[in-house]
Amino acid sequence: MPPKLKGEAYTKLPLCGNCLVSKKNNHTESFNGKQITLMLERTKETMVWVDGNFLGTNNHLSVPHEYDLSANLTPGEHVLTIMVNNGLVSMNSLATIPFKLRISHALSDNIQTNWNGIIGDIYLEAAPAVRIGQINIYPDCHNNEAKVKLDIFCDSAHTGSAAIDWRRFVEQLKNPQD
Known about the structure:
mainly beta; 2 helices; 4-stranded antiparallel beta sheet; 38% strand; 9 strands; Jelly Rolls
C-alpha cells in the first residue's frame, strides 16, 4: 500500500485483492424463455461464473456490470459465483487511469473510503425474450417531424414483424385530455 499524504483518509485494515462470493440459487420454470441478466451496480472489476462456467469479465467503473445468464440458467439449482477485484492490478496499469479517478473514492482511500466489493444493487432481471431495449426520439420542430430509433431485442428462436402507427400518439400529444 502506498504511503499516505498529509490530509488523506486512513484505513487501518485496507481491503484489497480479490473477493470471491458464491451463492446457490434455485430457478423455476418461470425463467424459461426469458432474458436473465445479472445486474451489479457500482463495483470494480468483476468476473462471473455459473456452475463453474466462466461467463465473462467487466472492468467499467462508471456503469453497472451486466451479465447475460440466460443460456446457463435452466430450471433447477445453480451456483452463481462473482469475483470482485478490489485492487488496481486488473486495470492494465495505473498509468492508463486518469489521475482524478485514481484518487477518487472508487479506487482509493484518499477522499473517503475505497469501494470494496459491490456497493450498489445486486439483482437478477428477467425480461421477455422479445423486448424493447431503448427508444430515442429526435424531434425536428421546423419540419414538424421526428426521427425515432427503436432497439428491439429478440432471441433467434423468435421471428415476426412489427408496424408502428404514430398518428394516435401524435393525436394524444395534441389533445392530452382525450
